[in-house]
Amino acid sequence: ISMYSMIFYDADNNGIPTRNEDGAVVDEEKIRSLHEYTSKYPDREISETITKKYGESSYKYIGKSAIPKIRGGFRLSGKVYNFDISTQFLYSIGGYSYDSAYAGLMDNGSIGSNNYHTDIRDRWQAPGDITNVPRLSNNYDLNVSSSSSRFLTRADYLTLNNVQVGYTMSKKICKILGVAGVRVTVTGDNLFLLSAREGFNPSLSLTGSSNTYRYSPLSTFTLGMKVKF
Q1: DSSP H or E segment with residue 209
Q2: Each residue of 9-26: pLDDT tens digit?
Q3: Is there a contact between 7 and 31 (Cβ–Cβ < 8 Å)?
Q4: Is 202 exposed, middle or buried (0-12, 13-18, 19+ CB in 10 A)?
């Protein structure tokens, strides 16, 4: 069962959120957004507890930002005899993003209606299990994949987005073939990605967020030949 942080103003000083006849927290003690509430009532002491109801949870700033500390790229190249190689890497360090695609793959909807991430294997199954993945209950537990800090993910990444290996034919062989020069290249794009979670590509969005309708660039290979006469 999912548990959420609930922040409230203990107006009657009884140590727990006061509820009305319908079981809802009274408006005087309810805090939906911690930042807005403390801005409006800076001198009030607030309390915190745990709730099983997502609708009673509170928004609060937890100090995470989508802005990376550093982002850039670098190239490595070299040459041995008639062979040469060049590579281009891109990287980002620092910042967090919200992995919506992962949240969808960790949902608790009707069995058979959705694909799962392999992390679902770590779900709670029996008393004594210690895990941060709720049980599967065939849509019985609602809001399992709703927005929360559970799906905030580090946005660090390193990607190898281009490699080119080339061979330049020697002048001696070119003379035999009757050409001025020959160069053969093999190029690969989007070959490698290292991120906080396999399949998660933070480079596709300025905020690093993921989406099931946003696809990562395909890995492609190109064979080329340049002949000079």
Answers
A1: none
A2: 999 999 999 999 888 999
A3: yes
A4: buried
